[in-house]
Amino acid sequence: MVKWGDENTKFFHARATKRYRFNIIKQVIDSDGREVTDHHEKAALFFQEFRNRLGFTANAQMLFDLSQLMDQQDLWDLVQHFIVEEMDAVAAQLPIDKAPRPDGFDTSSKNVGL
Fold first, then answer.
1. Which is nearest to 29 in space by CA: 17, 19, 41?
2. Domain count of the chain?
3. Residue 43 lies in a domain
4. Are 78 and 50 contained in the same domain?
């Protein structure tokens, strides 16, 4: 029986512990047939297998000129701090009868093109 203030914490921790034990890879057999149990060795084996399957590029060459793709303008404005007047101007444009979603965007039909 759950008592007031208990909130199933004993049950929750028992389930979490069981799940944690289930999610552990206890050993890995490498290509030589050796059982590997050390965490760092297992990580190295998994990383090597990942590289073998996915591949990797050594000495990648950039075949385009980055200076031609970007405007040679002053980018100092990108790192400037916000000023109070700018924040006030943005806040003044927000609708007063709607709350933003967690990502900050309003999904009313006028904003999504419906």
1. 41
2. 2
3. yes
4. no
Q: Which residues neighbour 106 within 8 Å (Cβ) at sequence distance 6 or greater?
A: 95, 98, 100
Could you tell me the end-to-end alpha-carbon distance of the chain, in angstroms, rounded to an integer?
52
Residue at 34 is within a domain? yes
User: What is the tens place of the pLDDT at every residue in 68-104?
Assistant: 777 767 777 778 888 899 888 988 888 888 776 666 5
Distance, in Å, from the CA atom of 41 to the CA atom of 30, rounded to the nearest integer, reads: 10
For 48, the domain range is: 9-54
Q: Give the separation between CA 114 and CA 21, rounded to whole angstroms.
A: 50
With respect to residue 37, please indicate whether it lies within any of the assigned structural domains: yes
pLDDT digits (tens, 9 = 90+) for 6-31: 666 777 788 888 887 777 888 999 98
For residue 73, count other CB atoms closer than 10 A to its CB: 7
CB 26 within 8 A of CB 37: yes
Q: Are 42 and 25 in contact (CB under 8 A)?
A: yes
